[in-house]
Amino acid sequence: MKLKVEIKWALIFILSLLLWMLLERLLGLHDEYIDLHQYITMLYAIVAIVIYVLALKDKRKSAYSESASYSQLFKSGLIITLIITAFSPLSQYIISEVITPDYFTNIITHSVESGYYESVEQAKAEFNLENYILTSTIWAFVMGLATTAIVSIFLKNKK
């Protein structure tokens, strides 16, 4: 089984996520405009879907001569998702410790000041590296699987 396409697109996805987080930080969404972060960060879903579409189109073209079944595309998307999920803890570590090391401090302060949490202790229980690694790993798998399932429906084309 050749996984060149899946590995390539999983790496593109991971790199795009890291670049997105860097862009968010540079735009002040992790400090000055942290109140907008939860809304703006959801726009990455568009990027993620586009990457999955391009990845499965690439797989369809390169491996199946433009004629792929739902299960063939789903399998490819699942492999991409598993690779992304496997690297999710490392990606989250890079985001939290390298790209934006002050994010947790900033979001904890903001969430308490805005009344979302009553105490710093409550906010710290939510906003920490361990929780974000767990959440991002689960999220990567669930959303990758859902995206794969839907995109495969639209890209299948058995001749």
Shape category: elongated
- Distance between the amino and carboxyl termini: 22 Å
Number of strands: 0
Low-confidence stretches: none
Separate helix tally = 7
List the defining traits of the structure above.
mainly alpha; single chain; about 160 residues; 7 helices
SSE map:
Layout (H helix, E strand, L loop, with lengths): L3 H23 L7 H7 L3 H21 L5 H30 L3 H11 L6 H7 L2 H27 L4
Structural overview:
It is built from seven helices and no strands. Helix 1 packs parallel to helix 4 (70-99). It has helices spanning 4-26, 34-40, 44-64, 70-99, 103-113, 120-126, 129-155. The longest helix is centred in the middle third of the chain and has 30 residues, at 70-99. The chain is elongated. It has one domain (4-155). The chain is mostly helical.
Short recap of the structure:
Helix 1 packs antiparallel against helix 3 (44-64) and helix 3 crosses helix 7 (129-155).
